[in-house]
Amino acid sequence: MPGEHSSKQYDMDLETIRSKVLLMGGLVESQFHDAVACFKSGNVAQAEAVIKGDDNVNSLEVSLDDACSHLIVKRQPAANDLRTVMATIKVITDLERIGDEATKIARAAKNITERGVTTINHYETIRVMATSASNMLHDALDAFARLDGKQAIKLIAQDEVVDHEFRSIMRTLITFMMEDPRTISGALDTLWVAKAIERIGDHAKNIAEYVIYIVEGKDIRHTDYAATQLDERTTN
């Protein structure tokens, strides 16, 4: 009976942590959405709200890291349970970094508006890429919530699309700057935003990889595991 009680308490503690992680995920998803929106509209107040909101994300990271540490010390999880806790800690770190990238986008939006940079259509330059990365983040959080390994595998393949879009944007912005030096300031801000979006895609991919680690016990970082799995399903 004591063992059963301890197991139930561990499950409750872990579920509490998972719920807070998903809350944190919702916050950074909103941050990203709002950051892209103010990059489009030039709304300085909205940009400042995104920047200020990063404090909430940072506080959640600290409290969740502490909760995970206490869970390990108190419950001493082993095997699959320990793997779940360790992967969750890594997810928390990636979510905090997504919040940081969203803050960078908001700062760039604020800078462009305050300087009155209007020589390029900066939002249209990153619109498609932002949508792709936003979808990746949403799917990563959904895969983590449901521990859906299949969805995680599909998501990982999408990262190459975001990387390709970033390279295309970089070439476009370099062309703008070469053809008209007046666009350099705005183009550089837009390039920093594109890089932040590309990094958000990377962090979403990381979360998907941790989902697979939890579900299958396989560390697929720096491997072609996801591509192999998709190829096998296509063949079959």
UniProtKB/TrEMBL annotation:
Q: Which SUPFAM superfamilies match?
A: PhoU-like
Give the family this protein belongs to, as stated in its UniProt record: Belongs to the PhoU family.
Record bears the keyword Transport:
yes
Provide the alphabetized UniProt keywords. Cytoplasm, Phosphate transport, Transport
The name this protein carries in UniProt is: Phosphate-specific transport system accessory protein PhoU
* Stored PANTHER family: PHOSPHATE-SPECIFIC TRANSPORT SYSTEM ACCESSORY PROTEIN PHOU
Oligomer and partners: Homodimer.
Q: Which domain of life is it from?
A: Bacteria
PhoU domain boundaries: 22-108, 126-211
Function description: Plays a role in the regulation of phosphate uptake.
The record's annotation in NCBIfam families points to: phoU_full (TIGR02135)
Q: Name one Pfam family in it.
A: PhoU
**Cytoplasm listed as a keyword:** yes
The subcellular location is: Cytoplasm
Note the InterPro entries from the entry.
Answer: PhoU, PhoU-like_sf, PhoU_dom
Q: What is its main location?
A: cytoplasm
